Amino acid sequence: MLLGAWVVVVTAVVLIVPGALVGRRMMLPWPVALAAGPPITFGLVSVLTVLYSAVGFQWNAISALVGLVLAMFAAWAYAALLRTRWGRRVAPVPEGPESDEPGSDDPPAGVTAMLRVAAGVAVGGAIIAITCIRPIATTAFAGLNNVSQVWDSLWHASSLRWIHETGIGSGLRMGELMNYDTHGFNYYPNTWHALGALLFPITGANPVELYNTYSPAVLAITVPLGVASMSYWFARHRFDVNSSATIAAAGAAISALFPSLPYVEVELTSVPNAVGVSLAPVAAILTMGVIRDRRRVGPAALAVTGVTATHPSGLIVVGVIVALWWLCEALWHPVSTRLRDLLTLVSTGALTLILVAPVIYGTLKVSDTNELPFFDFRVETVGVTQGLSQAAFNGTVPLADYYPLWGLIALTALGLIVLAWMRCWAGLLAWLAFVLVTANAVVELSVLSYPLGSIGGYFYNSPHRLTFVVALLSASAAGLAVGSATVWLSRWVSGKLSARSSETDAPQRFSPVMVTTAALALLLVLIAGAGVVKYPQHAQLASKERGGKYIGPDDLDAYHWLADRPDAWNSVILNNLDQGTGWIYPVTGLTPLFPFYRANDFSQRQRDLYWGVSTIGADPKIDQIVRDMRVHYVIDSPPSYWPFQNGAPGPGHQGDPFLALRRNGAPGLTEVFRQGNVTIFRVNDSVLAPPP
Hints:
mainly alpha
């Protein structure tokens, strides 16, 4: 747990500070710069890793610091340009106090507002981090070295190690990891992994430990921060800055009670998607602010870039929120003129497109080989009404056993009512839009199916990923309900205390600020208590896929045994990619032929060796491939991940190419290790020696 706590602290510093410093240098007020710190940090990582890859620089802690210095110079130049006569004409300084900035006209009040939000984020983050890390450290086999059994986790853990070892952080070069033999092109949004790789020398964690702690650590920051930002924006439609900060703090803390926010995503390992989506409200609200202060075009574009490069699904959330805000609010209440406001937004979008050009290029280039958007998760037994109910109130798979959560449903409903009272139509419509998109991923919604499915495709039309978006908005609404009640109760108590002081001519001992702060502190204690009560349920959910179904203690023992063989380090291990034995790389650093459950552009010799493993020593062609690829060991660890990958190959059934090896062995292989279902074979010297 000490390692987990240390990783959380380091992650918070590395994630927030660089972006906040650059944002502040780009003329953002400190409260906004701190809130925008994470997406701006990811934006910097996205730009720097692509540039470093292009010029041949390695990505590591030292080069990242150099990149931060360069970014600070660029931010200084940006601010200096805005201070010129031309800059003041294009982006004039807003007149009067900046109403959206906490305490801009009252610094002490601004500090109070910042501390309130920070307290809420800290409570929510602590609940999330403890709930996700503690069960792995204390109950899962191998503790923090435990291996998640979910498909995506292997890719994330391998990416962390690969970036650390090679210094290649560009998402455009991930094919070099995915396919050992061809290094065929593959793009993957890689900023989350590239930032995490910087933590190795600081934390001393190994790749599996870092993956198991860094994943929830980032979400412990981004989820409360995203909900706080959205709750603050909601509240500013009717409340003053400091009251809005109280509401934002409530939203940040209460976000940790929604199982579909951090815990399902940690269970199913879709962390980059969750990080990008949870930061989308921050980037969206920063983008909305550009029409009031055009100096924010640069930092807003950089923040949206960070969200997009972390996962493109975040850009969809930003786009929906900003579009609805424009149609429902900004279009009817322009700051300058409608045309100028629109042009300001367009300029922000244009700058963003330039910065995310590598993301666009990579996504388009792999679009024809990426089958995930065409997955269908619909359930035939679910009707339209039930699908809408599950989508609206966090009841989609895998939350069926937890649904309905009446307390959270009631708070969300109250928050939606408050939203309607405040006439925050954009927030209401955003919630409704993603409810419909999520419901359409569960059950076909007639004529709406195609447009809703097109939006859902960016989330693979996966109900749990879409439910995460709905829950983000629901938690913001729940925070609005609870926070508003806290503000109104504090005002009532302050009024009573003030009236009593007037009647007795005694000085008022408790100021309204003290009363509100005390009320918020009590609320945060209650939410923390609710987190303790819900801990068993949420901890079980977050650590659900940790039982060793595919990769268990026997596999880890086999990996470490193999790592003790000197000739394994300068060779390649032939493995069955369907069995997940690519985990040998993040666990030990050895090189498997197939590092992941799939690969782009298999070479012919990979196919021949994979399907001809049982003929090693009997087929000269296969033996030559073994020598060419320097294969010294073969590892077999059934079962395979998907049902169609098990059993004997046949018409319409892929089957398991290692089945014949498992049953009959191979003339050129000698069994050297067996434990449970795991078997390791060594290639005989007669095969490794070149023929006369």
